[in-house]
Design brief:
By secondary structure, the chain is mainly alpha-helical. It contains three helices and no strands. α1 packs across α2 and α2 packs across α3.
């Protein structure tokens, strides 16, 4: 009896080992297929990036230069407006002892200084973009990555 039971057990083990091997082969084939597809997808993404990256960088530089130009124009107009308000405040202060002239003078002076600083910042950024675009791109990438 022992030998019949032992023979049955060895037969079952042999069956399970063969089915395990077949399943392992199928799993390995599926895994290899998935890895090959993933590698091909990564290769395609890298090729796409190589082709598209110069155009994306060119568009980014163009957009930033237009953005800085708009900022310079708007800030310049606001600074001129503050200069005119400053002049009007001086005239009102000289004419009579009016608080409106003093408030206009003071507010336009503070806003004018703020806008002049902002204008300087826009001009500096636009100059960096125009004169050293690679340095600007490095700084921009650093700011995107969050590194200081």
């Amino acid at each position: 009896m022992w030998s019949a039971r032992q023979g049955t057990t060895s037969l079952l083990l042999k069956f399970y080992n063969e089915s395990d091997l077949a399943m392992n082969d199928k799993a390995t084939d599926i895994l290899v297929t998935l890895i090959n597809r993933a590698a091909a997808g990564i290769d395609q993404a890298v090729e796409f990036s190589k082709v598209q990256l110069p155009e994306v960088i060119e568009q980014l530089l163009l957009w930033k230069s237009v953005s800085y130009g708009i900022g310079i124009c708007v800030t310049l107009l606001l600074t001129v407006g503050c200069a005119l308000a400053f002049k009007k405040g001086l005239i009102l202060m000289r004419r009579d002892d009016d608080r409106v002239g003093f408030v206009l003078f003071l507010v336009s002076l503070m806003a004018g200084v703020l806008f002049a600083a902002l204008l300087t910042s826009y001009v500096a950024a636009a100059l960096q973009l125009a004169l050293a675009p690679k340095v600007w791109l490095i700084g921009y990438a650093t700011s995107l990555a969050g590194a200081k």
